[in-house]
User: Fold this.
Amino acid sequence: MSADFTRTITVDATPQQAFDAINDVTGWWGRITGRTTSVGDEWVYVVPGLHYSGMRVTELEPGRRVAWLVTGSYLDFVEDHQEWNDTTVTFDIAETDSGTQVTFTHAGLEPRVECYKVCSDAWSMFIAGSLKDFINTGVGKPYVFSGAEALSADDHQELHDEVQASAAME
Assistant:
């Protein structure tokens, strides 16, 4: 049995509606820079001063599966700031008698890694709360920034480039 973090939700939507909602990352997780619509697309999610994730879309099977590779990361609250690097995030989608089931897995996020508790709690909040609501109602609860902590698209790209350069030097 895998120790990777997994969370399953059942939604009142078609598999294609769930797939479309998952790919609208801004609607349930938070603002991103980049695209999520084709294999090979890259995008960035940032919580200023706390968390950065650079992602590459590695699989898109409409109505069935979405997968992302974490190409770069920065977690301010753990010793190994790049703990997520080269981990994968997947969403497996299946129609069931009780609705559409979405199984989220963050492969590499295991109890042995330092961020497991904080990161699994955050993923649970976003998957079982915001994403589920977004699929069911069209309204999620993404993390929203305002004021001085808000980053522009240029800021996202600059941070992405800095983290990528730092990772290449290690």
Summary: Residues 20 and 33 are 18 Å apart (CA to CA).
